[in-house]
Write a structure and sequence with these properties.
Layout: H1 2-7, E1 9-13, H2 21-36, E2 46-52, E3 57-62, H3 65-71, E4 78-79, E5 82-83, E6 85-87, H4 99-102, E7 126-129, H5 137-144, E8 150-158, E9 163-172, H6 178-185, E10 189-190, E11 193-194, E12 196-199, H7 209-221, E13 229-233, H8 244-258, E14 264-268, E15 284-289, H9 292-302, E16 306-307, E17 310-311, E18 313-317, H10 319-323
Antiparallel strand pairs: 1-3, 1-6, 2-3, 4-5, 7-9, 7-12, 8-9, 10-11, 13-15, 13-18, 14-15, 16-17
Length: 328
Amino acid sequence: MHADRASRRIYAGNLPLSVKESEIRDFFNCVMVAAQGPGRKPGDSVLGVFLNLAKRFAFVEFRSAVEATQAMDLDGIMFRGLALKMGRPANYNPSASSIAARQAPKLNIAKLGILSSHVPNGPNKLYIGGLPYNLKEPQVRELLETYGPLRGLFLSYDPATNLSKGYAFAYYEEESITDAAIEGLNGLQIGDRTLAVRRHESCAQFQKPQQMLNTITKDNQQKQEATACLCMLQMITTDDLTDKDEVVDIQADIRNECSNFGEVLEIVIPTYDPAGKLMPGAGKVFVQFRTIEQAGACKKALQGRTFADRTVIVAFFEPAKFKNREFV
């Protein structure tokens, strides 16, 4: 019975100081409803919460070991402005857990906007080196998510300087895009630094010979092609988007700068929708040139440049997504 209870509990750390047990219980119940979907078992997922407010953590007890295992995927979820840290209690014995719990269906965390700081080992765990030391996690995330949403990101910081150590680990939500991200980001020049992006060495053990052969084949097939469209990061902030006049001025400045390299057909700066919510791609600038050569010249010239004290990052963008306004 003791082992069963341990398998139904999870540790939730980094809680706000003024939180109450009922608030934590309601939060996790709502999250499980949203992430499990319409096929979930009716009723509350959480049986109880045992709060240690002084140390800002709680043990959350679920009705089943399966749901406790699922809840581990919530590591990094935002709760009252803080990213929660999920873990297992010290008396948890994974070997005693049921097969059903160990093989619990994954939650649909994409709709929750979770970015975990824990990056698990696996065949598609990425190492990203050569990052400028002044880049913060949101900027690194924005750069990497040019290729798709991330499941996890860990940026190493030096606590003495509050600057990064220049490297990070990441894992994509869709593992199939890992090769394309490596191809597009490895060797990218940002300021005076050059990115080194590859699979983490310790994860090579996860790849069988045939998988490694498939990876080599993908590397040859999934070359990132130059296009006439560009995606620019850190040219604009979401704060800028609140002022329409400011957006117009920034767009004019970008058009003037980009016109030095060719004919600019269109510039799109996603802002807010009619309901007042940020549109997909908000915080990025998308530029379409007449030719691929013009876009390439612009990318080479602007990559690593400083714009309003921010380091500009430029990547090619798929023309079909630009046409259909599939901005992410």
